[in-house]
Amino acid sequence: MSTLHQNTETTDASGASGAHPGSQRLRGPYWAAARMHRSTLQGAAGLLVLAVLLLIAIHLWGGGLAGGYWTDTRVVENASSVIALLPYLIAAFVAGPVVARELESGSHQLLWTQSVSPVRWFAAKLAVPTALALVGSVVLDCLYRWVWSTSRHENPALNWYSDSVYQAIGPIGIATALLVVPLGALTGLLVRRTVPAIVTSLIATAVVSDVVGAVRGHLWPVVTVRTSLATGYPAMNGMVTSEGAVTTSGAHVADPICVDDKQCQAAHHLAGYFRSSHPVSHFWPLQLVETGLLLALTAVLTLVVFRIVKRMAV
Protein backbone atom coordinates (compact mmCIF):
# COMPACT_ATOMS: atom_id res chain seq x y z
CA MET A 1 0.00 0.00 0.00
CA SER A 2 1.34 3.38 -0.87
CA THR A 3 2.75 5.81 1.68
CA LEU A 4 0.32 8.52 0.64
CA HIS A 5 -2.63 6.18 1.01
CA GLN A 6 -1.35 5.09 4.39
CA ASN A 7 -1.30 8.74 5.41
CA THR A 8 -4.84 9.18 4.14
CA GLU A 9 -6.12 6.16 6.02
CA THR A 10 -4.30 7.20 9.18
CA THR A 11 -5.91 10.61 8.91
CA ASP A 12 -9.38 9.12 8.41
CA ALA A 13 -9.01 6.74 11.30
CA SER A 14 -7.64 9.34 13.68
CA GLY A 15 -10.23 11.82 12.53
CA ALA A 16 -12.95 9.44 13.59
CA SER A 17 -11.40 9.17 17.02
CA GLY A 18 -11.12 12.96 17.51
CA ALA A 19 -7.90 14.02 15.71
CA HIS A 20 -7.11 17.66 14.94
CA PRO A 21 -9.82 19.16 12.70
CA GLY A 22 -7.20 20.33 10.16
CA SER A 23 -6.19 16.73 9.41
CA GLN A 24 -9.81 15.90 8.57
CA ARG A 25 -10.00 18.62 5.94
CA LEU A 26 -6.72 17.76 4.14
CA ARG A 27 -6.60 14.45 2.31
CA GLY A 28 -3.92 12.32 0.67
CA PRO A 29 -1.06 14.26 -0.93
CA TYR A 30 -2.33 17.60 0.38
CA TRP A 31 -2.12 16.33 3.94
CA ALA A 32 1.34 14.86 3.28
CA ALA A 33 2.63 18.08 1.65
CA ALA A 34 1.32 20.25 4.50
CA ARG A 35 2.83 17.91 7.10
CA MET A 36 6.19 17.84 5.26
CA HIS A 37 6.45 21.65 5.48
CA ARG A 38 4.61 22.16 8.77
CA SER A 39 7.62 23.80 10.47
CA THR A 40 7.88 26.36 7.66
CA LEU A 41 4.15 26.98 7.81
CA GLN A 42 4.32 27.51 11.55
CA GLY A 43 7.22 29.94 11.12
CA ALA A 44 5.39 31.80 8.36
CA ALA A 45 2.27 32.03 10.49
CA GLY A 46 4.35 33.46 13.33
CA LEU A 47 5.93 36.08 11.06
CA LEU A 48 2.53 36.99 9.67
CA VAL A 49 1.09 37.50 13.15
CA LEU A 50 4.14 39.61 14.08
CA ALA A 51 3.74 41.76 10.96
CA VAL A 52 0.04 42.24 11.68
CA LEU A 53 0.78 43.31 15.25
CA LEU A 54 3.46 45.77 14.08
CA LEU A 55 1.13 47.36 11.52
CA ILE A 56 -1.61 47.69 14.13
CA ALA A 57 0.92 49.24 16.53
CA ILE A 58 1.98 51.75 13.84
CA HIS A 59 -1.65 52.73 13.39
CA LEU A 60 -2.43 52.99 17.09
CA TRP A 61 0.69 54.75 18.29
CA GLY A 62 1.80 56.62 15.17
CA GLY A 63 1.99 60.39 15.27
CA GLY A 64 4.38 60.72 18.15
CA LEU A 65 7.62 60.25 16.24
CA ALA A 66 8.78 63.51 14.71
CA GLY A 67 12.54 63.65 15.13
CA GLY A 68 15.61 61.61 14.21
CA TYR A 69 15.54 58.75 11.72
CA TRP A 70 12.48 56.87 13.00
CA THR A 71 9.82 59.41 12.15
CA ASP A 72 6.24 58.31 11.47
CA THR A 73 6.86 58.69 7.75
CA ARG A 74 9.96 56.54 7.89
CA VAL A 75 8.18 53.82 9.87
CA VAL A 76 5.30 53.60 7.40
CA GLU A 77 7.71 53.68 4.45
CA ASN A 78 9.91 50.93 5.88
CA ALA A 79 6.85 48.82 6.63
CA SER A 80 5.97 48.83 2.93
CA SER A 81 9.55 47.86 2.07
CA VAL A 82 9.36 44.87 4.42
CA ILE A 83 6.07 43.75 2.83
CA ALA A 84 7.80 43.99 -0.57
CA LEU A 85 10.13 41.18 0.58
CA LEU A 86 7.25 38.68 0.76
CA PRO A 87 7.49 37.56 -2.93
CA TYR A 88 11.24 36.92 -2.51
CA LEU A 89 10.66 34.72 0.54
CA ILE A 90 7.95 32.74 -1.24
CA ALA A 91 10.05 32.26 -4.40
CA ALA A 92 13.06 31.07 -2.38
CA PHE A 93 10.90 28.67 -0.34
CA VAL A 94 9.29 27.13 -3.43
CA ALA A 95 12.50 26.90 -5.46
CA GLY A 96 14.63 25.39 -2.70
CA PRO A 97 12.85 23.43 0.09
CA VAL A 98 9.71 22.58 -1.90
CA VAL A 99 11.12 21.60 -5.32
CA ALA A 100 14.90 21.50 -5.69
CA ARG A 101 15.67 19.70 -2.42
CA GLU A 102 13.47 16.77 -3.41
CA LEU A 103 15.07 16.55 -6.85
CA GLU A 104 18.58 16.92 -5.45
CA SER A 105 18.11 14.11 -2.92
CA GLY A 106 16.35 11.88 -5.43
CA SER A 107 13.40 11.33 -3.08
CA HIS A 108 11.03 12.34 -5.85
CA GLN A 109 11.74 9.03 -7.60
CA LEU A 110 10.27 7.13 -4.65
CA LEU A 111 7.35 9.50 -4.24
CA TRP A 112 6.51 9.33 -7.93
CA THR A 113 6.18 5.53 -7.76
CA GLN A 114 3.23 5.89 -5.35
CA SER A 115 -0.34 5.49 -6.51
CA VAL A 116 -0.77 9.28 -6.65
CA SER A 117 0.38 10.64 -10.01
CA PRO A 118 3.46 12.93 -10.11
CA VAL A 119 1.37 15.79 -11.45
CA ARG A 120 -1.14 15.48 -8.61
CA TRP A 121 1.66 15.18 -6.06
CA PHE A 122 3.39 18.27 -7.46
CA ALA A 123 0.07 20.16 -7.45
CA ALA A 124 -0.38 19.27 -3.79
CA LYS A 125 3.14 20.51 -2.99
CA LEU A 126 2.51 23.83 -4.73
CA ALA A 127 -0.87 24.21 -3.03
CA VAL A 128 0.91 24.81 0.29
CA PRO A 129 2.98 27.87 -0.79
CA THR A 130 0.09 29.10 -2.95
CA ALA A 131 -2.23 29.17 0.06
CA LEU A 132 0.53 30.80 2.08
CA ALA A 133 1.09 33.46 -0.61
CA LEU A 134 -2.61 34.19 -1.01
CA VAL A 135 -3.48 34.46 2.67
CA GLY A 136 -0.30 36.34 3.61
CA SER A 137 -0.48 38.87 0.80
CA VAL A 138 -4.20 39.56 1.22
CA VAL A 139 -3.86 40.12 4.97
CA LEU A 140 -0.73 42.30 4.70
CA ASP A 141 -1.90 44.35 1.72
CA CYS A 142 -5.31 45.08 3.21
CA LEU A 143 -3.84 45.93 6.60
CA TYR A 144 -1.07 48.10 5.14
CA ARG A 145 -3.55 50.02 2.99
CA TRP A 146 -5.57 50.72 6.13
CA VAL A 147 -2.45 51.92 8.01
CA TRP A 148 -1.17 53.96 5.07
CA SER A 149 -4.49 55.72 4.52
CA THR A 150 -5.12 56.51 8.18
CA SER A 151 -1.68 57.15 9.70
CA ARG A 152 -0.57 60.70 10.39
CA HIS A 153 2.30 61.01 7.94
CA GLU A 154 2.65 63.99 5.61
CA ASN A 155 5.67 63.11 3.49
CA PRO A 156 4.90 63.38 -0.26
CA ALA A 157 7.29 60.48 -0.82
CA LEU A 158 4.64 58.25 0.69
CA ASN A 159 2.09 59.10 -1.95
CA TRP A 160 0.41 56.28 -3.81
CA TYR A 161 2.98 56.25 -6.64
CA SER A 162 5.96 55.54 -4.40
CA ASP A 163 7.24 52.13 -5.57
CA SER A 164 7.01 50.19 -2.33
CA VAL A 165 3.75 51.85 -1.27
CA TYR A 166 2.18 51.31 -4.70
CA GLN A 167 2.77 47.56 -4.47
CA ALA A 168 1.52 47.33 -0.89
CA ILE A 169 -1.84 49.10 -1.29
CA GLY A 170 -3.28 47.36 -4.34
CA PRO A 171 -3.98 43.93 -5.86
CA ILE A 172 -0.63 43.78 -7.68
CA GLY A 173 0.98 42.83 -4.36
CA ILE A 174 -1.30 39.79 -4.20
CA ALA A 175 -0.78 38.94 -7.87
CA THR A 176 3.00 39.19 -7.47
CA ALA A 177 2.92 36.82 -4.49
CA LEU A 178 0.99 34.30 -6.60
CA LEU A 179 3.31 34.75 -9.61
CA VAL A 180 6.45 33.80 -7.72
CA VAL A 181 5.03 30.37 -6.81
CA PRO A 182 5.31 28.93 -10.36
CA LEU A 183 8.39 31.09 -10.94
CA GLY A 184 10.12 29.47 -7.98
CA ALA A 185 8.87 26.03 -9.01
CA LEU A 186 10.24 26.50 -12.53
CA THR A 187 13.58 27.60 -11.10
CA GLY A 188 13.72 24.56 -8.84
CA LEU A 189 12.86 22.19 -11.68
CA LEU A 190 15.54 23.65 -13.95
CA VAL A 191 18.36 24.09 -11.41
CA ARG A 192 17.62 20.96 -9.27
CA ARG A 193 20.00 21.97 -6.49
CA THR A 194 18.68 23.60 -3.34
CA VAL A 195 21.01 26.53 -2.69
CA PRO A 196 21.61 27.50 -6.35
CA ALA A 197 17.86 27.27 -6.93
CA ILE A 198 17.18 29.65 -4.04
CA VAL A 199 19.74 32.15 -5.35
CA THR A 200 18.43 31.87 -8.92
CA SER A 201 14.84 32.34 -7.79
CA LEU A 202 15.77 35.52 -5.92
CA ILE A 203 17.49 36.88 -9.02
CA ALA A 204 14.54 35.90 -11.23
CA THR A 205 12.10 37.59 -8.85
CA ALA A 206 14.20 40.77 -8.87
CA VAL A 207 14.36 40.75 -12.68
CA VAL A 208 10.60 40.29 -13.02
CA SER A 209 10.01 43.06 -10.48
CA ASP A 210 12.33 45.44 -12.35
CA VAL A 211 10.78 44.68 -15.74
CA VAL A 212 7.23 45.15 -14.45
CA GLY A 213 8.26 48.38 -12.73
CA ALA A 214 9.85 49.66 -15.95
CA VAL A 215 6.69 49.13 -18.05
CA ARG A 216 4.20 50.17 -15.33
CA GLY A 217 3.96 53.76 -16.48
CA HIS A 218 3.07 52.65 -20.01
CA LEU A 219 0.11 50.44 -19.07
CA TRP A 220 -2.39 53.31 -19.28
CA PRO A 221 -2.48 56.53 -21.35
CA VAL A 222 -0.67 59.35 -19.58
CA VAL A 223 -1.74 62.95 -19.08
CA THR A 224 0.75 65.41 -20.60
CA VAL A 225 0.88 69.05 -19.57
CA ARG A 226 2.88 71.66 -21.50
CA THR A 227 3.99 75.05 -20.24
CA SER A 228 5.92 78.02 -21.59
CA LEU A 229 9.55 78.82 -20.91
CA ALA A 230 8.48 81.67 -18.66
CA THR A 231 6.21 79.41 -16.57
CA GLY A 232 8.76 76.66 -16.12
CA TYR A 233 7.99 72.98 -15.57
CA PRO A 234 4.37 71.90 -14.91
CA ALA A 235 3.54 71.02 -11.33
CA MET A 236 4.07 67.43 -10.17
CA ASN A 237 0.88 65.39 -10.54
CA GLY A 238 1.18 61.78 -9.47
CA MET A 239 3.39 59.16 -11.11
CA VAL A 240 5.70 60.99 -13.53
CA THR A 241 6.66 58.93 -16.58
CA SER A 242 8.62 61.50 -18.61
CA GLU A 243 9.50 65.18 -18.68
CA GLY A 244 11.69 67.52 -20.64
CA ALA A 245 11.67 70.42 -23.08
CA VAL A 246 9.36 71.22 -26.01
CA THR A 247 10.86 72.64 -29.22
CA THR A 248 9.27 75.19 -31.53
CA SER A 249 8.21 72.29 -33.78
CA GLY A 250 6.34 70.69 -30.87
CA ALA A 251 8.80 67.83 -30.40
CA HIS A 252 9.56 66.52 -26.90
CA VAL A 253 13.31 66.45 -26.24
CA ALA A 254 15.65 66.03 -23.31
CA ASP A 255 16.06 69.23 -21.35
CA PRO A 256 19.39 70.86 -22.33
CA ILE A 257 19.30 72.65 -18.93
CA CYS A 258 19.41 76.16 -20.36
CA VAL A 259 17.45 77.56 -17.38
CA ASP A 260 17.25 81.33 -18.14
CA ASP A 261 20.00 81.41 -20.78
CA LYS A 262 18.20 82.96 -23.79
CA GLN A 263 20.99 82.15 -26.25
CA CYS A 264 20.96 78.51 -25.17
CA GLN A 265 17.16 78.33 -25.48
CA ALA A 266 17.32 79.85 -28.96
CA ALA A 267 20.14 77.54 -30.02
CA HIS A 268 18.02 74.50 -29.04
CA HIS A 269 14.78 76.00 -30.44
CA LEU A 270 13.04 75.65 -27.10
CA ALA A 271 9.44 76.77 -26.71
CA GLY A 272 8.55 75.35 -23.30
CA TYR A 273 8.49 72.31 -21.05
CA PHE A 274 6.35 69.19 -20.68
CA ARG A 275 5.63 66.63 -17.99
CA SER A 276 3.72 63.36 -18.56
CA SER A 277 2.24 61.60 -15.55
CA HIS A 278 -0.52 59.46 -14.10
CA PRO A 279 -2.82 61.38 -11.73
CA VAL A 280 -4.42 59.64 -8.77
CA SER A 281 -7.48 58.83 -10.91
CA HIS A 282 -5.25 56.38 -12.84
CA PHE A 283 -4.46 54.32 -9.75
CA TRP A 284 -7.09 51.60 -10.21
CA PRO A 285 -6.79 51.31 -14.02
CA LEU A 286 -3.02 50.89 -13.63
CA GLN A 287 -3.42 48.41 -10.78
CA LEU A 288 -6.02 46.32 -12.61
CA VAL A 289 -4.09 46.17 -15.90
CA GLU A 290 -0.87 45.20 -14.15
CA THR A 291 -2.70 42.63 -12.01
CA GLY A 292 -4.19 41.08 -15.14
CA LEU A 293 -0.76 40.82 -16.76
CA LEU A 294 0.76 39.26 -13.64
CA LEU A 295 -2.04 36.70 -13.35
CA ALA A 296 -1.73 35.85 -17.06
CA LEU A 297 2.01 35.32 -16.62
CA THR A 298 1.24 33.18 -13.55
CA ALA A 299 -1.06 30.97 -15.64
CA VAL A 300 1.58 30.60 -18.38
CA LEU A 301 4.35 29.71 -15.92
CA THR A 302 2.05 27.23 -14.15
CA LEU A 303 1.31 25.52 -17.46
CA VAL A 304 5.03 25.33 -18.27
CA VAL A 305 5.84 23.90 -14.82
CA PHE A 306 3.29 21.10 -15.07
CA ARG A 307 4.32 20.24 -18.62
CA ILE A 308 7.89 19.82 -17.36
CA VAL A 309 6.71 17.64 -14.46
CA LYS A 310 4.64 15.54 -16.81
CA ARG A 311 7.63 15.00 -19.09
CA MET A 312 9.89 14.14 -16.16
CA ALA A 313 7.38 11.52 -14.99
CA VAL A 314 7.30 9.70 -18.33
Structural overview:
- The protein has 314 residues and is of the alpha+beta class.
- It has helices at residues 3-16, 21-25, 28-36, 38-61, 72-83, 86-105, 107-111, 118-150, 163-168, 171-191, 194-215, 262-267, 283-313, and strands at residues 223-228, 239-247, 252-253, 270-278.
- Strands 1-4-2-3 form a 4-stranded antiparallel β-sheet.
- Helix 6 (86-105) runs antiparallel to helix 11 (194-215).
- The longest helix has 33 residues, at 118-150.
- It starts with a helix and ends with a helix.
- The model is unreliable at 1-23 (pLDDT under 50).
What are the main properties of this structure?
13 helices; alpha+beta
Quick structural gist:
The chain contains 13 helices and four strands. With 314 residues, the chain is α+β, with helices and mostly antiparallel strands.
Largest sheet composition = 4 strands, antiparallel
User: Please, what is the average pLDDT?
Assistant: 83
Strand content: 5-15%
Q: What's the SSE pattern?
A: HHHHHHHHHHHEEEHEH
Question: How much is the radius of gyration in Å?
Answer: 25 Å
Anisotropy-based shape: elongated
> Gap between N and C termini, in Å?
22 Å
Number of strands: 4
Number of helices: 13
Quickly give the structural class. Answer: alpha+beta
Helix content: 55-70%
Catalogue the unreliable spans. Answer: 1-23
